[in-house]
Amino acid sequence: MVRLIFIILISLPIHVVAQKMQVRIFYGKEINKISILSMNGNCQLHNSKGFLTELKEGSKLTLNINSSKKIHISQDGKFLGISDSLFLYQLEFLDYLSFLSPDGCFKKRKYQGDFKITQNDGTFQIINEILIDDYLDGVLASEAGTRLETEYYKVQAIISRTYALNNSNKHISEGFNLCDGVHCQAYLGRYEGESNAIQNGVDSTKGKILLDSNNNRFPVFFSANCGGQSSETDQIWSANIAAYLSRVDTFCIHTRQANWEKYIPKKKVVSFLKEKYFLDVNSPEIANKIINFKQDVRKTFFIHPSYGIPLRDIRNHFGLKSTYFDTEQVGDKILFKGKGFGHGVGLCQEGAMNMIKKQYSYEDVLKYYFSDAKISDFRIEAIYK
Q1: pLDDT (tens digit, 9 = 90+) per residue, 196-242?
Q2: Among 121, 148, 174, which residue terminates a domain?
Q3: How far apart, in whole angstroms, are the C-alpha atoms of residue 138 and residue 144?
Q4: Is 65 or 40 the better-scoring residue by pLDDT?
Q5: C-beta of residue 186 within 8 angstroms of C-beta of residue 33
């Protein structure tokens, strides 16, 4: 007897099975020439009118934008035509394409999935439509590196999968879900290496995301290193998310990016504070506070809240690694002596990596950094027995 059992998750607005993402690749780069090499299997090239050609394994497609702002197309040196838009469809699941820059604008990247290629004002706009877990393979390699243990990649896979779904409308007005930069999640294409740890981390957590107590997706964030104390969201983005209260993190304080220093000419710092915030920099009291600012615990404002100078503004203006810093004068410069790398909200990647080294499980790590969240699998499955 065959029984069909449906696992139905009524309250959940998420459908993870075969979930695809549309990711704008080379986002922010001005590219008007590109070569595409079919590396593993075949793919088809279409324009808005239909089929143009098939790219067999080893075949090379060369595209450039001409003076009329049309896409000039050639295959293996043979001119194929001119078009406003192109579509590349890979014919087999494991097919991938290599994207190369004839003028060295970017390093070679390999991608799975399908592609929509258009141009805007003389610059290519390329959207990669890809299964979410294939996307995550590339994200994990780009965001966390390629030399970690599978247990850590389980952590990052669940965080990055949740983040991708949470932010799938971030660029919807531009015609895609996510970009390939850190504005969304870094995604530099298909990871190819000897280790299977990344793929194992993604595959073993397939469909798993973080939820809050109301079964809504948890608002996940991560950064490289919190410096020993996590940030609250309003310290970084002027938006308070109750799930994120500042807390001490002892797992990251002796890691690679736990501490940093940067020297900036004092006159540049003083000029910035005077011109943007009308600070009375000639006041001896204020002048002293500028060069003797201390954070025993994380703060939101520079000097004092009454002056209204967010630390995030200073970080952004001077390119600092974090908002968690002290100041002191060294000659004619101000030394910014800081802790951590990134915004410091949510998962501290180096802290999590250290926990894995100390034999904590991926569930332990997620519980430590997201104590109010739970791991759930939202795939809708049909099980035949």
Answers
A1: 999 999 999 999 999 999 999 999 999 999 999 999 988 888 777 87
A2: 121
A3: 10
A4: 65
A5: no
Beta bridge partners of 4: 384
User: Is residue 84 packed enough to be buried (19+ CB in 10 Å), middle (13-18) or exposed (0-12)?
Assistant: exposed
Q: pTM for the whole thing?
A: 0.89
Backbone φ/ψ region at 26: left (φ over 0), alpha (ψ -120 to 50), beta: left
Spatial CB neighbours of 306, under 8 Å, sequence gap ≥ 6: none
Q: What is the mean pLDDT of residues 164-168?
A: 95
SS3 content of the chain, % helix, strand, coil (to 5): 25, 30, 45
Q: How many Å apart are CA 112 and CA 300, to the nearest integer?
A: 42
67 is a domain residue: yes
Least Cα distance to 138 among 86, 175, 99, 87 occurs for 99
d(CA 298, CA 300): 7
The per-residue pLDDT for range 294-303, each reduced to its tens digit, is 999 999 999 9
Distances 260 to 63, 98, 253, 321, 343 between C-alpha atoms, Å: 44, 37, 12, 8, 14
Complete DSSP assignment for 67-126: TTS-EEEEETTEEEEEES-EEEEESSTT--EEEE-TTSSS--EEE-SEEEEEEETTEEEE
Give the integer Cα–Cα distance in Å for 112 and 129.
Answer: 9
Residue 345 near residue 244 (C-beta atoms within 8 A): yes
Does residue 270 lie in a domain region? yes
Rounded distance between C-alpha atoms, residue 53 and residue 61, angstroms: 10
Q: What residues does 325 pair with on adjacent strands?
A: 338
The answer to whether residue 6 scores a pLDDT higher than 80 is no
Looking only at Cα atoms, what is the longest distance across the chain?
Answer: 87
DSSP-derived 3-state class of residue 173: helix
For residue 248, tell me if it sits in a domain.
no
Domain boundary among 324, 339, 354: 339
First to last CA, the chain: 8
Q: Comparing C-alpha atoms, which of 213, 233, 245 is closest to residue 300?
A: 233
User: Residue 160 is inside which H or E element, if any?
Assistant: helix 150-166
**Which domain covers residue 299, as residue numbers?**
259-339
* Amino acid identity, position 45: L
- Is the pLDDT confidence value at 243 over 90? no
What are 345's two structure tokens? 């909200």
The residue type of 294 is K
